[in-house]
Amino acid sequence: MAGWMAQKCQICGDVIPEGKGHCPRHRASGPVPPRGTPTPDRTQRPIDPITEATIPSAKWQSGKVSAPQSPPKGNAAGVRHGPISGARAANPSDASDAPTLLAQAPLHFLEPEATPPARPMARRPSQALPKMPPAAPPAPAPAAAPAAPAAPAGHGADPLLGQTLGEFKLTELIGVGGMGMVYKGVHPLIGKTVAIKVLRPEAADDPEQVLRMLDEARALTAVHHPGIVDVFSFGTLPDGRPYLVMEYLKGRSLQAQLEAQGRVQVDEALQIFDGVLGGLGAAHKVGLVHRDMKPSNILLVHEGDTVLAKIVDFGIAKQGQPGALTPQTLMFRCIGTPEFVSPEQACGQPVGPQSDLYSFGVVAFFALTGKLPFEGENDAVTLMKQVEHAPPDPKSFEPSIPEPVAKLVLRLLEKKPSHRPATAEEVRTELIEIRKQRDVAKAAEAGAATARPSSVSPEVAAAMKPKVPKATKGFRPFTLLLFLIAAGSGVAWWYLRVR
User: Fold this and answer.
1) What DSSP string describes 438-479?
2) Catalytic residue positions?
């Protein structure tokens, strides 16, 4: 036959006779593979399609491989028994040869079942998608509550909050200082509020700090004055730390007010100084020297137009004989804050009431001007200036300061204690006199503004002046005579008529 091309069976490799469309043995046909194409390896043992196990060689060679009547289209692994090219039965009568053909099929005829591609779903134009309701906006997060003062570093949550010390329950941490922490305590029955000062945990093992807390309790108990915070009780925690139960005051320190305003007006400052000097005078009378007077230790309580000043933190106060010098804890050791200590305190010498007055002078200078009289790069330089340098004039920083007040502040900042005022009461008396003079000057200025002369011309002023009627002049003798004659004539007429 012209144009005939030899074909080989893809299973056994024999040449298919001319005119036949398939191999006589396997009834499969196909084109001859190109030269160089490897023929199927008939020695390779196939895999059973049901059990996926290798078929033994004896059964494979003999062709006696049993197969189910209806082989499944795929197994659990998703592998299907794909069509064997050229080995499909030509007619139903050849189905008996299927097991033999399947057993002789090479491994590459087991193909993974291909996943049919997903066809896009056509949507008619008229079938519009239903509109989904708009999503509700997220609810706003609740506002965060104001944070309480942080507990000391390294202690996490404060274990004292919620506990009861004595008769009061600790409800809030209201302040943290260098030596102690101050809590707000409330009596559970009567609702009385107090301030409870507790020694810091890291200072509990320091005997000096514990002794200072005890000295503060004794000092505050010895003084009873409106200008000094009152103490109600003293106790010890189970861990050995002491605590003080004190008067609870709503206000802020002078330091906080200066940081907010920069300086204090003269009239308000004089009112604050009066309360501070009253408290210092009461402490000095019982022989108590504060030794740490500074704005942060002066608490201001506003009651209407009145400002009450309270002295707090007597932790490093020393008590001795009234008016006598009190030695410091260690000689040649500075106790206090360098910007506010007196020269003798900076040198480690014994201190007395004049030392507190010097510190009060620095506080007054700072409150009136918003500036410190002595500042240095470090504490040593500041202490040296306290001892050697003369203070500047407060009016050079704030010209509105009255001259008597500026002079009094400079007297308080004298280097020698003997050149300063002797007592706090003396300074307070001078300030009271200055306040009276200012009040008189204000009243005179207000009266002068009320009685200020008018600029109206004299003619206009005379026209605006109300007219006063002239006083009636006295009767003359002739007028009196005429009156008597008329009266006599009338009486005579009446008498004659009656008769």
Assistant:
1) HHHHHHHHHHHHHTPPP---HHHHHHHSPP-PPPPPPPPHHH
2) 292
